[in-house]
Design a protein that fits this description.
Radius of gyration: 13 Å
Number of strands: 5
Structural class: alpha+beta
Largest sheet: 5 strands, antiparallel
Order of helices and strands: HEEEEEH
Length: about 100
C-alpha cells in the first residue's frame, strides 16, 4: 500500500510562489492550502497528498458554477513544478 501522505514538497515554497494571492484556509492542514484572488467566487485548493509524492495537486473551484461536485471543482489536476503551479493558479484567479 502506498503512503498517500508522503510528499517531496512543502507548503512554504508553494505559498511563497503564490504570494500575490490571499490564503483563505485556517492554516491547520500541513499538506494543503487554499488561495483566492480578486474574483470572489474562485479559489484554488493546492494539496500535497496523493499517489505520487513528486506531484503538486490542485483543484480550481468556482462557487458560481454547478459542477456536481461538493467543492465546485471546475478542474482537478497536478503539476511537477512550482512555475507550472503558479501559471495555472494565476490564469485561474486573475481571469
Amino acid at each position: 500500500m502506498k503512503d498517500l501522505l508522503r510528499t517531496n514538497w512543502t507548503i512554504e515554497p508553494l505559498l511563497a510562489a503564490l504570494h500575490d494571492f490571499q490564503r483563505t484556509d485556517d492554516g491547520v492542514d500541513l499538506l494543503a492550502f487554499r488561495v483566492a484572488g480578486s474574483m470572489p467566487q474562485r479559489s484554488a485548493y493546492v494539496y500535497l497528498y496523493g499517489d505520487n509524492p513528486d506531484l503538486i495537486n490542485f483543484d480550481l473551484e468556482d462557487e458560481s458554477v454547478e459542477t456536481g461536485e461538493w467543492d465546485h471543482a471546475v478542474q482537478r489536476g497536478s503539476v511537477r513544478s512550482i512555475p507550472d503551479l503558479r501559471a495555472i493558479v494565476v490564469r485561474w484567479l486573475v481571469g
